[in-house]
Batch of 3 targets.
Target 1
Amino acid sequence: MRIYKGIHSLIGNTPLFEITKIPLPNKVRLFAKLEYFNPGGSVKDRLGQELLQDAINNGHISRKGTLIEPTAGNTGIGLALAAVGTDVTVIFVVPEKFSQEKQMLMRSLGAKVVNTRTEDGMLGAIAKTKDLLKEIPDSYSPSQFSNPANPDTYYKTLGPELVQELEGKIDVFVAGAGTGGTFMGTARYLKDTLASVKTSIVEPEGSILNGGDPGPHRTEGIGMEFLPPYMDTSYFDTIHTISDKEAFKYVLQLTKLEGLLVGSSSGAAFAAALKEAETAKPGSHIVTVFADSSERYLSAGIYEGAE
Ligand code: PMP
């Protein structure tokens, strides 16, 4: 039996879960990394840890400095968790529309939250962050939307975990993209390591990857308004654009049939994985990422109106 000391030792090495109750075509085996088993409840705990270390080790702030980051929530929770037990102050700039639960968790972990207008999107939050950086001394923004440490986190952690757990037998990797760090880092690791693997990126309607205009969507945590510099579109073997309706339908199915309490980005990832399963060779191994939990979205009505 292992005794864990320090919350940071619980980040990563999340369970890999095989879908067995929801019927799958082509005798496909579908696996999901249950990232909501991380101690802050999402895939972004991995990133928070890395960004804090990166900021201190590279001298961007002192050990008593301030990190300021525009975030839809989960990266904030990951960063706030990483800062627990340190003297670093964290401030998050969050568009109002994002889940109240996430904002409450960030505050409870000791962070300050500054809200920006929903209509201004993530670009509005990024602009506000720039203003705060000028006002506050010894401050730095890890800038998850441009920092190569973002994809590198997943190249170093999630990618190797998947290859080890599935003994390299991965035919298709499917993941949603918000900043794109999870997809890009993992996809790059898999293509560098395995002889042949298809990497499939997932977005909600209202995201730009399939050539659409940016617009509102209810699926939280994924969707791109612009392409961050570390994204390499040659890794987009397929792009799946999933409607909110479909994402929420699968959230309910995953909950009722598999007992998986997942958030809407996981519903979208699963919808895309099923589309891959329909065209996959019989017996293929498809792996995806369930980034966070439905408990984070109860007041936003994640289980309402989806039946
Ligand atoms: N799902 C959820 C719920 C998230 O919060 C995020 C992070 N924005 C993602 C998926 C996508 O992760 P990434 O930013 O690495 O693309």
Target 2
Amino acid sequence: MTEFKSGFVALLGRPNVGKSTLMNRLVGEKVAIMSPKAQTTRNKIQGVITDSDAQIVFLDTPGIHKPKNDLDQYMDKAAFSSLNEVDIAIYMTSADDKIGPGDRYILNELASLKTPLFLVINKIDLIHPDDLLTQILAFKDEANFAEVIPLSATQGNNVEELMTEIKSYLPVGPKYYPDDQLTDHPEYFIVGELIREKILEFTRDEVPHSTAVIVEDMNTHQQGKLVINAVIYVDRDSQKGIVIGKGAAMLKKIGIGARREIEALLGEKVNLKLQVSVQRNWRDNPLFLARAGYNQ
Ligand code: GDP
Ligand code: MG
Ligand code: K
């Protein structure tokens, strides 16, 4: 019997190389939610795969995959250094894109990582195999890749191979997320993120970074609606005031916006019940972070 493995995988790459498509294929539609908004400084979970022998948590690392022409934005050292804390970093490109200065810059930055770096060349269905070889050779000189995996996220070619390679690099480890949250109810975390995204969208700058959302339960139905209880945690009383708003107007707005997205995600009517609670310095509280599903 092999030991259970688990770990964190950062998925990097320029827009449109197919990161979301790959996530959808690997994890399933429900879990691979992409936010159109710029994210906070925290790593954002893109998806979690739990099977009988491993749990893989895919993270999106904001601040790295910025548009090519915006080289200054790549200089986000904090984002790069967070890559030292993951188990595998994957740099994804598209087979029909030539290697460019943006790729070179980012790969040069990644060179100092201790983390194993995979190159995933997506969209191989779009090119001739000979051109794939040219691509691989062009990239190979730019970094010391632990693995190079060409695949097609839409067709599914070689996606299993990627999974096998990821697993072979993961350490033996625990399930970070309990089964009931991620196999039966992968929605818990994602629903929390959808609520947090609405807070991000509607409140002032200081608030979103101080906010965590924990979905307490989403098991019962009342009057044909799924009842979801969630708690929004903030650092300070003043932030609680902002999130609730005058006459609870802000909380209502957050609730309505989030409910729409949750209903679209789950495909059913939802009664979303939100509470706001002050939890001072929650970012320094490992138990709280684990419960909220954040790894830092
Ligand atoms: P992201 O910005 O990196 O998340 O990219 P998306 O997943 O949104 O994909 C961008 C576009 O590329 C979409 O139109 C996808 O359908 C397409 N795409 C993704 N993977 C493949 C692939 O393997 N082959 C082809 N032909 N198109 C793909
Ligand atoms: Mg995407
Ligand atoms: K959350």
Target 3
Amino acid sequence: MRQRAKFGSRFAAIMAMAGSAVGLGNIWRFPYMVGEHGGAAFIIVYVLCCLTVSLPIFFSESLIGKTTRKDTYGAMEQIAPGGKLKPVGFMAILAAFVIVCFYSVVGGWSFNYLIRSLAGSFNGLDMASAREVFASVGSSPVESVSCMLVFLGMTALIVVAGVDKGIGRFSKISMPVLLVMMLLIAFVSLSLPGAGKGVEYLLKPDWSRLDGPAIASALGQSFFSLSLGVGCILTYASYMKEEESVLTAGVWTAVFDTAFALIAGFAIMPAVFAAGIEPAAGPTLVFETLPVIFSKMGVVLPVIFFLAILIAALSSSISMFEVAVAWLVDQKQMRRVTAVLSVFGAAVVLGCACAVAPSVFRACDFVSSNVFMMIGALAFALIVGWKLPREEVLRHLRFPFIYAVIRYVAPVMIVAIAISNLL
Ligand code: PFF
């Protein structure tokens, strides 16, 4: 029998999980959400959501991976021989695959912007031309598709190099570098005249804005940010060494992810306010507002910024790509290289559709984040809370209150967020 791949060290496993967690969600959604939903008040609720719901689900998902030592589909089959849970495994793999396809389009835009910033083409950019550039990048099929392919190709190259030599090594190097780059941008951003308003936007607590939708957003964001429900964490945990703890890995991942989201907030919002621009979220923030602002600060800062986005996106996309690769390697006994080529081939087809048709992009985003992810996370919590033997769960999770949260609190909260997202 072939030896199953493993991460070479605890650091590699934790950096890989942190890499999956840290992504576009931290950079383009979190800072804006904080400002819109009550600053420090939202941050407190976000941290509470992580502690009480998302982290316990993270523990559940990683516990399943670590104890079964299988890919997502194989893990479900092992837990319920006879196939009752097979659809859950299959759906999670499909969700990770769908996410990587539309995520690669955005990864491609980041690559495109990195090249443009290296060529110095953002010099003297104003808001109107920034909008034109982004409209042309997004709507030109040749540009969108070719950059998406480059991004997907980079993802495949890292994954094909192996669990430890590819994913582990990339994560061990890129995560600390990413942190330094974001800290540097935050430092520059905070030293701009007028930056104080951005800090106020992020930190001034406004409890009156903390309504039901704000709390649901905090939960949804902590979910997406920790990459839950689609098998990424399960698959990575299945590569952890026997002696590693899922508790330690989960806590470090959540700390890194939250710290990174806050640093991204301090890198972005003070600069936005210093430039006197209204804050926005999503692609508008990253591909229109920020190029205008950073282009006024020399050629190096935009390069660092887009390189940081590219690295953050890549470290997440490799985790989604690996979910399907692990399934083909474990269940279909494919060689790693054949599995990577197969996933790459399939992702090119759906990725091209996402790159040229915004409606396909939006549908993939909606279905995977609001439906598949939620069902996957609910299933993982229910499996650990109600199906696995209590002693085995407690051997890994140690604290009975975490077990109680997984059994009762997490499932109810997931159903609540899913309903509020779909309404
Ligand atoms: N956690 C990533 C982010 O915050 O951008 C997104 C993500 C990665 C979602 C992996 C789902 C996933 F399986």
